[in-house]
Design a protein that fits this description.
The chain is mainly beta and 306 residues long. Helices cover 10% and strands 57% of the residues. Helix 2 crosses helix 3. The two termini are 34 Å apart.
C-alpha cells in the first residue's frame, strides 16, 4: 500500500499522480508493490537474482513502461538486475527512476544493473530520475549501472536526471551502437552540501554510420564534488559529440574529462567541456527587475538544467 510519502516520491521520479496507463512495475522497499502487463509488454521476475525481465514484442508502438523504485525505510540496501528486450520496429517509452526518503540515522541505498537490447529499427526513449528527501541523517545512496546494445538502424534517447537530495552516486553507463544506430544522451545533475557524484559514460560507435550526441549539464553547490568521465570510441565511419557544461558555486569542485578515441579514419569525433560560475551580468540583469540574488541564481540554474 502506497502512503503519502511514497506517492510524493513517485510524483518526483516518474510524474505519477495515479496508477499509470500501460505496463508498470512499482518496487517499494526491496519488494514488488504492484504490476501490470499488456498484450505487447510482459514483465517477469528473474529466478536467479532480484529483478525483472521486461519483454517488448516486435512492432509495439506508442506504448510505455513505468518501473519506478521507492525506498521509504531507513537501513535498506536494495539491489536489482533488470533486463529489457525491445523488439524490432518498436517505438516505446520506458520511465524508471528511484526515490529515497531518509527518515532516520541509517543509510539507504539502491543499486541497479540495467541491460537493454534494442533490436533492429526500434526506437526507445528511456527516462531515469533520481531524487532524495527526508530529514534523517542517514545518507541516500544510488549506484546505477546501465548497459545498452543498439542494433542496426535503432534510435536511443536517454534522459538521466539527478534532481536533488542524493548524497552519493556513481553512475556507470556503457553503450554499443551498431550500423546506423543513433544515440542522444541528456544528463542533468545537481549536488549540494557534502554530496558526491560521479558519472562514467563510454559509447562505442561500432557500426558504419552510427552516431552519438552526449550532452551533460550539472550544477555543483556548497562543498559538493562532481566527477565526469566520458568517452567516445569510433571504430567505423561514424560521428560523435560530447558536450559537458557545469556551473560551480560556493566551495564545490567539478572535474570533467571528455575523451575521444578514433580507430577509423572516417570517425568524426568532437568533445567540449566548460566549467564556470554564473555570469555576473546575468545576475545583475535579473536583479534590476526586483529579484534578489538568491532568487536570481535559482532562476538561472533552473534554466541551465532545462
Amino acid at each position: 500500500m502506497l502512503d503519502n510519502v511514497d506517492k510524493e516520491l513517485l510524483e518526483k521520479i516518474a510524474d505519477l499522480h495515479e496508477v499509470p496507463t500501460g505496463a508498470y512495475n512499482i518496487r517499494k522497499n526491496g519488494g514488488g508493490e504492484s504490476r501490470k502487463t499488456t498484450a505487447n509488454i510482459d514483465i517477469i521476475n528473474k529466478t536467479d537474482k532480484p529483478g525483472i525481465d521486461i519483454i517488448i514484442k516486435p512492432n509495439t508502438v506508442n506504448e510505455s513502461v513505468h518501473i519506478p523504485v521507492i525506498l521509504s525505510k531507513e537501513g535498506l540496501n536494495d539491489m536489482v538486475y533488470n533486463t529489457f528486450e525491445v523488439g524490432a520496429n518498436s517505438d516505446v517509452v520506458i520511465i524508471a527512476g528511484c526515490g529515497i526518503h531518509s527518515c532516520g540515522t541509517q543509510n539507504s541505498e539502491h543499486s541497479g544493473v540495467h541491460e537493454f537490447f534494442v533490436r533492429e529499427n526500434a526506437k526507445m526513449k528511456y527516462v531515469e530520475k533520481h531524487y532524495g528527501d527526508g530529514n534523517g541523517s542517514g545518507e541516500r545512496i544510488m549506484n546505477p549501472k546501465t548497459f545498452i546494445e543498439a542494433f542496426d538502424n535503432s534510435v536511443i534517447e536517454l534522459e538521466m536526471d539527478q534532481i536533488k537530495g542524493i548524497d552519493s552516486t556513481i553512475r556507470d553507463t556503457e553503450i554499443i551502437l551498431h550500423k546506423n544506430a543513433k544515440l542522444i544522451i541528456t544528463e542533468r545533475l545537481l549536488t549540494d552540501g557534502e554530496q558526491k557524484a560521479e558519472s562514467n559514460i563510454i559509447v562505442t560507435l561500432e557500426g558504419e554510420d552510427s552516431s552519438a550526441q552526449i550532452i551533460s549539464r550539472s550544477v555543483a553547490q556548497g562543498n559538493s564534488v562532481q566527477n565526469f568521465n566520458m568517452e567516445l570510441i569510433g571504430k567505423h565511419k561514424s560521428r560523435g559529440h560530447i558536450q559537458c557544461d557545469s556551473i560551480i558555486t560556493g566551495n564545490a569542485k567539478v572535474s570533467s574529462s571528455p575523451r575521444i578515441s578514433a580507430i577509423h579514419s572516417e570517425a568524426e569525433l568532437i568533445h567540449e567541456a566548460t566549467v564556470g560560475r554564473i555570469a555576473s551580468d546575468q545576475l545583475t540583469k535579473l536583479m534590476t527587475i526586483g529579484i534578489n540574488e538568491e532568487e536570481a541564481e535559482e532562476i538561472i540554474i533552473k534554466g541551465f538544467l532545462g
